[in-house]
Amino acid sequence: MAGMLSRLIGGDLADLAQDPLGEFCRRSRQGGVVPLQIALTRGHLVSDLAAIRHVLLDNLANYDKHTPAFDAVRVVLGNGMLTSGGAFWKRQRRIAQPAFHGEKVRHFGPIISKMAAECAAAWEAAAATGDPVDAGTDMMRVTLRAVAETLFGDDMAGDAAEINRVFPTILTCLAARVSSPLRSPLWVPTANNRRLRPALGTLDAIVDRLIATKRRRLAAGGTSEPKHRDLLTILMLARDEETGETMSDLQLRDEVMTLLIAGHETTANALAWLWVLLDRHPDEQERLRAELVTATGGRDPTVDDLPRLPRLKAVIQETLRLYPPVWMFDRRAVGPDDLAGTPVAKGDLVIFCPYALHRLPQLWSDPDAFRPERFEAGKEEQKNKFAYLPFSAGPRICLGASFAMIESQIIVGTLLSRFRVRLVDPSPIIATPRVTLRTSRPVILRPERAPLAAR
Ligand code: HEM
Q: 398, 405, 411, 412: which to mutate for ligand 1, most atoms within 8 A of CB?
């Protein structure tokens, strides 16, 4: 009876709530386009590659982001690039895109290297006393600082601690909003809003001040060489090539919030999983360390070394296949459509589950196995880009994909050049789907000093 009731109220939510990843995998294996009733809304889980391409590329204009999940995060991200749509999104993306091209992103390599070296120093101290480290927390700290310093440059030095302090609260409160059916406006004094409001207020004040400081400096004619510019300056100076427009302060605020949030938890979770996988595959650690010593002589890798580290890149890609941080995302149909023979009505949700897609036996051989060689150049197992969606695909593909890859390679390369790592507790760690794909418990590692080069 209780099951029937929850089915009536929640559609397929009851099954999904029990074991979301297992349920998505089972339904995806049915292939094509599978119905998924979410409360009163009709949903379609799409695993057919042509249908995925249709929604993310060919008929992009028919699908927007007015879904419950995106509505829940608008309170923080406003009308930033992740949440906006239509002509407005297109203009923002056009302005920001050049700053995120592979070549441009390489300029941020030294900032990432500095953060990676700081993390390595903390691990050295732990290794010296035999203490374990919490890799999940450490990866979160490094990736937040990397994206914040990339955005603000030296200006944020005095704010780093405060940004670090409020962010966990903001992420926790956002996660609670996404999973709750009730999404009250921020002024309603719910317990969650009472926690979120002051944290967001603090961050907003810092971001507004940093934008104002930078505007003043630009107005006074003071800007650094293009090569050394921070991302906020680049975004402030960028002009839409079609209209000549620049971004307003309000728009800059929304984009900064978006980059801070989209740009750090995702990468941090991927890296937490990577350490879990390297614990389970010590042979892979040795292989990566051998690749590093050949490419760098054992010093910390820089962005220029990355082309000589293909196995490291493949390991990161394979981690993103098995544990995609954005394990699910969705769209809302603006008008009727047809997906691989399934009629879609206006207002229906279209759901993508990279976690399930990446484990489909019809797309990947031995899909649950960790096999980085799938991604080695020249023998990529999957050439269809709609079968591998850690960063989505099409015009709305993750803006920070190159940034995330470069960042991950530098951080992991730096730490592996100095340490071997093992999990303190070898019992299983299970994928736990929240807003991003979390580990079921903290990833506590014992780093053992094993420098590849004399220091
Ligand atoms: C491993 C790390 C990352 C993963 C797995 C990831 C994944 C994704 C995915 C799946 C989307 C598409 C969401 C959708 O359309 O519904 C997305 C969008 C986006 N990501 Fe990432 N991301 C990562 C890192 C980053 C970084 C480092 C940045 C910025 C520095 C970033 C900025 C963005 C932005 C701005 C969008 C919105 C793009 C648009 O709609 O035009 N992401 N990301």
A: 398
Tens-place pLDDT, residues 275-330: 999 999 999 999 999 999 999 999 999 999 999 999 999 999 999 999 999 999 99
- Determine whether the shortest distance from the Cβ of 273 to ligand 1 is under 6 A: no
Residue 18: predicted pLDDT: 79
In a domain, 426, yes or no: yes
pLDDT at 226: 62
Strand pairing of 419-423 and 431-433?
unpaired
Residue 265 belongs to a domain with what CATH number? 1.10.630.10
Using the mean position of ligand 1's atoms as its centre, give its distance from the Cα of residue 404 in Å: 9
* DSSP annotation of 300: P
Say if residue 300 is in the same domain as residue 232. Answer: yes
CA 411 to ligand 1 center in whole angstroms = 19
Q: What is the model's pTM?
A: 0.94
Position 382 in a domain: no
pLDDT at 13: 65
* 269 shares a domain with 304: yes
Is residue 369 scored above 80 in pLDDT? yes
409: Cβ below 6 Å to ligand 1? no
In angstroms, what is the span from residue 419 Cα to ligand 1's centroid? 30
Q: Atom 10, ligand 1: which residue's CA is nearest?
A: 391
Cβ of 81 closer than 6 Å to ligand 1, yes or no, is yes
Q: Tell me the one-letter amino acid at 90.
A: K
Atom of ligand 1 nearest to the CA of 65: 16
Residue 203 Cα distances to 171, 173, 199, 331, angstroms: 12, 14, 6, 29
Query: Which helix (H) or strand (E) covers residue 344, if one does?
Result: strand 342-344
* Whole-number pLDDT of residue 163: 86
Cα Rg of the chain, angstroms: 22
Residue 377 has pLDDT above 80, yes or no: yes
Same domain, 317 and 396: yes
DSSP string, 194-230: HHHHHHHHHHHHHHHHHHHHHHHHHHTT----GGG--
**Centroid of ligand 1 to alpha carbon of 293 (angstroms):** 32
- Residue 229's pLDDT is what? 80
**Ligand 1 contacts CB of residue 267 (under 6 A):** yes
pLDDT of 11 reads 60
